[in-house]
Structures
1.
Amino acid sequence: MKTFHDIENALRDYNWMVKEIQRLREELGIVNVSMTAKYGIESTLPKGNGTSNPVENEVISRERKQKTLNKFEKKVKFIEEHSVCIEDDRELTVLNCMLDGMSIVSISQHMGFSERKVYSIKDEIVNKMKKNAGNAEFAGIAG
């Protein structure tokens, strides 16, 4: 997450990514009972033509979800680690509103600023986070 737009998108998407992380963690903790073997008379009944091994499908599905979870956790962690560099009260307020999922229009109405002013504050937040990430990487703190 090095570019301005990557950080900007992560800020905009932070709120729903946190919710999705929680949902994926819960889902990955649940075992799908439909993939258990059948016994008794059910095991002798003819099976439908078509779909492949349900265990294999479950593994593929879990892998995909785990990759998505890891990607979202990386973005959320980045935002949380680098938001500490924001100290200005206006910037902190805009940042917190964005992290809560508010739109730029909502933030401008809430704070009594023009949308253009909120956009410029957001751009300053992103630039500070980018600079902070670069400094941390240079110092060998972040990867």
Note: The two ends are 10 Å apart (CA to CA).
2.
Amino acid sequence: MTPTVPDVLVAASRVAGLPWEGARPVRIAENQTWRLPGAVVARINQPGQNQAATGEVEAARWLAEHQVPVVRPLDIDQPVIADGHPVTFWEHIPGPHTPGSPRDLALTLRHLHRLPRPPFPVRPLDPFIRVRERLDTATTLPAPDRAWLTGLLDDLRAQWADRPPGGPETTVHGDAWPGNIIRTPTGVRVIDLERFSLGPPEWDLASTAVRTFTTGATSRAEYAEFTTAYGFDVTESDGYPLLAAARELRMVTYAAQHASADPRWRDQAQHRVDCLRGRRGPRPWTWRGIL
């Protein structure tokens, strides 16, 4: 069956002067990604994310100028706002491509974290952005679990305001995991700059550490390659327990949000909550990826 192209994408494509007939979904998640005719990829953000979409386009253009291998936005005025959704348009990267390795990610982050501050406004890192909204939609979780997660969010926010000192603020990717570094026949490319911001570099590094020591998705050997390539092990920093807790909460609420719309993820969402609440033994836990 041919998938129905969303009205939002049709409207935005018309404004941008791009063909949309025959568009195909690439990924339907919190944001939607569609492949358009003519080697173009469209990204549909959630309503209210205009600033994030604008920042993503600006960041990609600036990073390309600084020799960071990023996916490039089309040279048009964007984002395009359609029915409240900011929509951006990007070059299609010919395949085949696969997720980058932890070493690929480390080398990219080392480059990114050494860049000067951009000449355009960049928002400060908010580790808890959209977490409360996700909890509001987590209708499959029992009320006591939702209340506990809300309390954890409030506690972590308070800790973040008084967190241990770390490295000097830098540009950070904001969602730095191997799935956002793709390997192509011509090298690696950085994608998904929605959370590009200014903040402690440890935030980007903590993601791979959490995938190793919390979820088990990354092996110890891969983590050793990651820390060697970057030149620093974030788990040795005083702030790591807080960074890890914030990352874990994001991963739990992401699953809970998807479970409310797709019953396939209900068991995984509850499993993640049970892990945080001490019902599944010590870390590392086995968490399945949410598609």
Note: The chain has two domains: 7-92, 99-276.
